[in-house]
Amino acid sequence: MSLAPGLGNTLSSWLIAFPALFSIINPLGASLIFAQATEGRDRREVVELARQVALNSLGIMLVSIWFGSWILGFFGISINALRITGGLVVASRAWLMLLQPETSEARKEKQALQGGRTVTTPDLRETAFFPLAMPFTVGPGSISVAIALSSSTPPNMPTADYYAGVSAAATTMAVVVAVVYAYAERVVAMLGVTGTRIVSRLAALILLAIGVQIMASGAEGFLVEALKQAKAA
To answer: Can you give the pLDDT at residue 61?
Structure first.
């Protein structure tokens, strides 16, 4: 039984967007640090914090998806330039994650723990937006991916269907963040440090391929525009 065209397009765009967002956010790797940031806290407080961080992260992703391209377009930045730049940022970030996962972990730990102040905050919910949602969960790399995805509508696919799928992917990602963060201690115990780094490296490899693909689509767009101009001349 075939899917309706609109639902099929939405599912296709979801399959494009979700692996990219999952790879750059890497909730399994981030759960190691989230568990440190909430160590010794009441179980109910940790679950509520995970939910708020996920909602804040979703808001950041949706704003980037819906308005990122428009904002950049306001400054005269073309879609193809955005794709190449966004792909370059994503690929360079993935390369660092692939070769030096310990460096990425140390940077995220510094963002989340803020020199120990996160752990000693009287009300942990005060950290739900900064630093735990931004930049720890959704940082510049994640925002770049979201904007790049929003500008990468495949040919012959209605824009509404594509944006619906990408927004659904961001929503799914937020649900994953909420669940993984809420059970961060169990995730850490199950995977361990080594297992988490293996997952992080696999995610980095996928992300590197996605970054290269985004850059290639931007370069192809520039080439097509150049050929059209040459033909018109």
So the answer is: 96
What's the rounded mean pLDDT across residues 23-52? 87
As a whole number, mean pLDDT of residues 22-32 equals 86
* CB-CB neighbours of 217 under 10 Å: 18
Q: Are 39 and 188 in contact (CB under 8 A)?
A: no
Contact 44, 195 (CB under 8 A): no
CB 38 within 8 A of CB 49: yes
Using one digit for the tens of pLDDT, what is the confidence trace for 191-233?
Answer: 877 777 777 778 778 778 877 887 887 888 889 888 988 888 7
- Dump pLDDT digits (tens) for 81-138: 877 877 787 788 778 777 765 555 555 556 565 554 444 445 566 778 888 898 789 9
- Distance of alpha carbon 25 from alpha carbon 118, whole angstroms: 20
Q: Is the peptide bond before 101 cis (omega within 30 degrees of 0)?
A: no
CA 111 to CA 73: how far, in whole Å? 30
> Which of 199, 198, 215, 46 minimizes the C-alpha distance to 132?
46
Considering only CA atoms, which of 130, 90, 92, 89 is closest in space to residue 111? 130
The full DSSP string for 171-232 is: HHHHHHHHHHHHTHHHHHHHHHHHHHHHHHHHHHHHHHHHHHHHHHHHHHHHHHHHHHHHHH
Which H or E element spans position 134?
none
Query: For 134-147, what is the mean pLDDT?
Result: 84
Query: Is cis: bond before 154, omega within 30 of 0?
Result: no
